[in-house]
Amino acid sequence: LDADFNRPQIASKLGIEAAYNWQDAANGKVPLSEAAVKSLLDNITVLPPDVSPAPSRLTLADPRVTSIIRKASASFDLVVTDLGPVVSSDELNLPPGESCPFDAAIVVRDLRFASGAESVWVGEALYDAGIDAVGIAENFVVEDVTGTVVRS
What we know:
By secondary structure, the protein is of the alpha+beta class.
């Protein structure tokens, strides 16, 4: 589920053109099953985002978004949700009185741009939002000529 509200890219990266998106389902225009794109060969279902020039600006704080995440979780064994770059704790706010819809999170740290402190901050913000299992995966790891991993 691509929930990167600022730069949704999963559909374009996978070459998916869909008639509907999960935001259409969140807004009640179609059932969630109509927004799902299933690959039988890969045994994966993608819930593509709205990529129109002026997509509806939903956030994680919108109960329609957490409702879609809960519906997807009820339908699939594993739901991977791309939240995109998290730069403030406001982006992790949930609707008032609602529990977190995620069981676990992986913070992908791009070593070219993100510091360790920023990644730890995001991990702690996710934990504070109610996610009990938070891990950090380093991306774009660079090795020097000796094969030693160089970190920023």
